[in-house]
């Protein structure tokens, strides 16, 4: 009898299949064996595998938020049992109605279901939600998520960070794999403006990771899941046109998404293509201060005041293609292809008041920043038995950033070209302080000065006006910016369903990364007449060169009353700029190459090989309590090749450095289901972040074109930063498509890396020296809360109202050592770089009878952006608070055709940077104006 019992008990099978509704696959649906606690949830593609199911007649219960439960009867046999595609029906057919009327309800349900069933502490956003917000790239899409802040680059978001940590502390993944980054500033954080939002199927934001995720994620992990083959044929087309208020020019945006299945649904195809072409403009006011002066008061005196206009053209385009072949219910292969590119054509017009040298300065630059991101993946999933599953993935991705101008220069010297004109004032500037320097009035020792936004050229000689005939060409510069990262990755995971309560996972990943970079190599040409070379030709006046009209001069700094119209001068043309770098022009006008002999030190390359492995268990301790725990280990082997310039010997010496380290990362999660609507989660995770590549460069670079000069040193001995993270979160899901969540978190951080800024005197010349260093300890504590709610119980037309709101409050502290004198060191306390105390998103939406409107506000509080270890907190650079408001609206003309409109930056919110703790002491202030577009989306299938 006992033998027969065990023989019967050991006969089990695996149930597989897909859950869908008429619009596509449903992720996060629950699949449970009736009468037991044995169950699973569908993956992002709507698929499920439920192992260890006893053989014989069984009932499977499928539940999904907002849908009627479905019970499937099945005769379970040993091995793989394919249930095929199981369709669900939404309750009272309400969701089907709102789908054709183009609301966000289905998207919110999918996102909430994934969040509810995830093992990690996670936020989720689905593609159709992204498409209904005025966000055109990946960074702008994720800014709507709880705890996320973004950096804006001339009006468009390009980087994202989680929970207020530095941007490099948030890992960016595509389909679960860390992406290469050609960030020109060296950060490992990927620049996301190269990724059109149309390429994205889901965004998963993991705030507390599990051992099967990459461990270099102190802030969090943002995983962009690319589109995959649908269940039914899909063909969507979108086209829009728009306008930028400042550039007075047009924009257009178009996309197409196609997916289908062939050969009895075995072969799935998905192709998404997108282009976003727009003109853009920015006005920036920038001030520099004499922080290197020994007098403590004069450190706050103004060195230069710059009025800058950007007037460019950007193009973001990409193709995401995927193939999937299902051999049977147990085996499938897939491949994904990503081809993205961001082009930024950028003429820049700069005019200065140079107070220290009593002169005007005008710069003109023209360049095309190119940022391609290309890659391919090949993977497979294989259900080897009813208990054992294997999945694997191999990928090859390349990210680049480069500038290939001017064409008149040898290709090896090309980069960002800048022509500098100067005009000496005969009488100098007036309204100076008693010490002869320019101040903002609140800094001046005798109160003589201006507001930062209204500095004027008070002239001793009224005829000292900006004059093209007096502006002479005195410097030509090319800044070489060329970075490439190439990642090759292979990984494998094994999942073993040990029994109805325990799932074990083990896996490994190997990544080979190669990075090559010109770290802002500066090439300089100076006219002989300016540097005292005998018999040199006279300096070239701007008036003798080919010029063009200043772009859209009528709205130059309109937001502050157009105070800098006197700095408007017709710039030289693009072709004239390029011609000034031709060998003929340089020779005829006596320009000589004065590039630093240390230039080769800015070029470096490095290889980084990472071997990672993990073991992880998911155990149902009770019917309500699930424990997820395990261990991840990542070993990093880094080799850096750089160089150093020996001034006395006048030669370049090659340098090589290695930095190998191991990261052992224990993790433990608890998920307690109070009921089917409520979860409480607690987690301990240990994570880390690797140093940035430029920081590890064993050499140093010298830029003598700036006053004072700038020396950038690497530090090959940097340690990685580690963090012990503690999270406690709760979530409640409403019956009518809604969610309340909130919790607290704490991070105990060691070996924080920061950029130290100090002053040095070398051979009588002053230099500002930057070098990365490790600090000892830091901490971060915060809480977050969010709500998504639809007010369907309100009467009449008010039933279409809804709200999404999330708020994050964060505090951090890090101690920075500062030498007061040769024998005394003090510890300055400050917040972590990039960390804002307050962040929130607020969205008010209305959806009814085919009409959808959304007003979305995004707030990021003040943050420290750069630490000056030598001078202390009064000279830290801060980013000011920023609140942007966007609008989107749509109307379903027919069930398949929708008109939409999108407007960004309704409040024309500027981006502000300032020195110390006084926001009046501006270092930069940028205005972008309002932009928008309108168009049609046509869902043919």
Automatic annotation (TrEMBL):
Chief site of localization: membrane
Domain spans labelled TonB-dependent receptor-like beta-barrel: 456-906
Gene Ontology cellular component annotations, sorted alphabetically: cell outer membrane
Keyword Ligase: no
Superkingdom of this protein's organism: Bacteria
Domain TonB-dependent receptor plug: from-to ranges: 119-220
Keywords on record: Cell outer membrane, Membrane, Receptor, TonB box
Location of this chain's protein in the cell: Cell outer membrane
Protein family according to the UniProt entry: Belongs to the TonB-dependent receptor family.
PANTHER family: PLUG DOMAIN-CONTAINING PROTEIN, TONB-DEPENDENT RECEPTOR-LIKE BETA-BARREL DOMAIN-CONTAINING PROTEIN
Protein name: TonB-dependent receptor
Species the sequence originates in: Dyadobacter jejuensis
Lineage, highest ranks first: Bacteria, Pseudomonadati, Bacteroidota, Cytophagia, Cytophagales
């Amino acid at each position: 009898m006992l033998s027969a019992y065990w023989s019967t008990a050991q006969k089990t099978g695996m149930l597989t299949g897909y859950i869908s509704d008429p619009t596509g696959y449903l992720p996060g649906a629950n699949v449970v064996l009736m009468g037991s606690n044995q169950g699973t949830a569908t993956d992002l593609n709507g698929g499920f595998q439920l192992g260890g199911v006893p053989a014989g007649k069984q009932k499977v219960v499928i539940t999904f938020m907002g849908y009627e439960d479905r019970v499937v009867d099945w005769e379970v046999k040993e091995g793989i049992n394919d249930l095929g595609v199981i369709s669900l029906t939404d309750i009272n057919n309400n969701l089907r109605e709102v789908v054709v009327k183009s609301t966000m309800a289905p998207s919110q349900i999918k996102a909430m279901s994934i969040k509810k069933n995830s093992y990690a502490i996670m936020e989720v956003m689905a593609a159709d939600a992204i498409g209904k917000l005025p966000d055109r790239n990946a960074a702008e899409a994720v800014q709507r998520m709880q705890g996320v802040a973004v950096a804006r680059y001339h009006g468009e978001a390009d980087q994202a960070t989680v929970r207020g940590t530095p941007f490099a502390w948030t890992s960016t993944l595509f389909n679960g794999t860390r992406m290469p980054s050609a960030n020109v500033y060296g950060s490992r954080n990927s620049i996301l403006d190269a990724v059109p939002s149309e390429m994205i199927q889901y965004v998963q934001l993991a705030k507390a990771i599990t051992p099967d995720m990459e461990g270099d994620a102190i802030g969090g992990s943002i995983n962009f899941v690319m589109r995959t083959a649908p269940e039914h044929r899909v063909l969507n087309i979108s086209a829009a046109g728009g306008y930028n208020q400042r550039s007075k020019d047009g924009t257009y945006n178009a996309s197409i998404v196609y997916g289908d299945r062939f050969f009895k649904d075995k072969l799935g195809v998905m192709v998404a293509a997108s282009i976003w072409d727009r003109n853009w403009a920015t006005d920036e006011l920038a001030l520099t201060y004499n922080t290197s002066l020994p007098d403590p008061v004069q450190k706050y005196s103004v060195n230069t005041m710059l009025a800058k206009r950007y007037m460019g053209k950007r193009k973001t385009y990409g193709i995401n293609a995927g193939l999937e072949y299902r051999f049977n219910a147990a085996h499938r292969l897939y491949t994904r292809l990503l081809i993205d590119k961001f082009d930024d054509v950028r003429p820049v017009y700069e005019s200065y008041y140079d107070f220290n040298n009593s002169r005007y300065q005008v710069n003109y630059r023209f360049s095309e920043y190119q940022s391609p991101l290309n890659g391919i993946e090949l993977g497979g999933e294989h259900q080897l038995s009813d208990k054992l599953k294997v999945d694997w993935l191999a990928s090859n991705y390349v990210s680049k950033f480069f500038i290939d101008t001017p064409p008149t220069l040898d290709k090896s010297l090309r980069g960002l070209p800048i022509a500098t004109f100067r005009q000496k004032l005969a009488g100098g500037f007036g309204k100076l302080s008693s010490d002869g320097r320019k101040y903002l009035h609140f800094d001046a020792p005798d109160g003589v000065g201006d507001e930062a936004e209204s500095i004027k050229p008070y002239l001793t000689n009224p005829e000292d006006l900006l004059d093209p005939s007096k502006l002479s060409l005195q410097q030509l510069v090319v800044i070489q910016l060329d970075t490439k990262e190439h990642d090759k990755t292979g990984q494998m995971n094994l999942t073993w369903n040990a029994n109805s309560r325990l799932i074990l996972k083990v896996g490994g990943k190997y990544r080979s990364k190669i990075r090559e970079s010109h770290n802002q190599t500066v090439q300089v040409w100076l006219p002989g007449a300016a540097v005292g070379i005998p018999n040199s030709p006279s300096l070239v006046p701007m008036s003798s060169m080919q010029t063009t009209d200043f772009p859209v001069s009528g709205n130059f700094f309109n937001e502050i009353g157009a105070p800098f119209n006197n700095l408007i001068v017709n710039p030289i043309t693009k072709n004239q700029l390029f011609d000034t770098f031709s060998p003929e022009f340089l020779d005829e006008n006596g320009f000589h190459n004065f590039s630093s002999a240390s230039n080769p030190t800015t070029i470096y390359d490095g290889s980084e090989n990472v071997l990672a492995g993990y073991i992880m268990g998911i155990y149902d301790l009770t019917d309500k309590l699930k424990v997820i725990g395990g261990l991840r280990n990542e070993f990093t082997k880094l080799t850096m090749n750089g160089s150093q310039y020996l001034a006395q010997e006048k030669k370049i010496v090659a340098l090589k450095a290695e930095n190998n380290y191991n990261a052992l990362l224990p993790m433990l999660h608890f998920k307690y289901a109070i009921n089917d609507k409520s979860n409480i989660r607690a987690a301990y995770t240990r994570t880390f972040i690797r140093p940035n590549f430029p920081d590890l460069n064993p050499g140093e670079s010298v830029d003598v074109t700036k006053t004072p000069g700038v020396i950038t040193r690497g530090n090959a001995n940097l340690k990685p930063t580690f963090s012990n993270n503690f999270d406690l979160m709760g979530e409640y899901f409403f019956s009518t498509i809604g969610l309340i969540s909130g919790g607290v978190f704490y991070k105990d951080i060691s070996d924080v890396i920061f950029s130290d800024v100090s002053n040095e005197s070398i051979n009588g010349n002053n230099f500002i020296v930057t070098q990365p260093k490790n600090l000892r300890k830091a901490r971060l504590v915060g809480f977050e809360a969010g709500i998504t709610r639809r007010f369907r119980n309100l009467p009449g037309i008010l039933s279409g109202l809804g709200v999404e709101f999330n708020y994050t409050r964060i505090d951090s502290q890090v101690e920075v050592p500062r030498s007061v004198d040769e024998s005394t060191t003090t510890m300055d306390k400050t917040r972590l770089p990039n960390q804002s105390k307050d962040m929130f998103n607020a969205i008010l939406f209305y959806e009814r009878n085919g009409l959808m409107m959304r007003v979305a506000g995004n707030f990021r509080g003040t943050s420290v952006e750069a630490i000056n270890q030598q001078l202390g907190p009064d000279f830290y650079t801060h980013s000011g608070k920023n609140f942007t408001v966007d609008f989107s609206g749509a109307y379903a003309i027919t069930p398949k055709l929708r008109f939409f409109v999108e407007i960004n930056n309704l409040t024309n919110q500027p981006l502000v940077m300032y020195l110390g703790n006084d926001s009046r002491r501006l270092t930069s202030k940028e205005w972008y104006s309002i932009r928008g577009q309108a168009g049609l989306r046509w869902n043919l299938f």
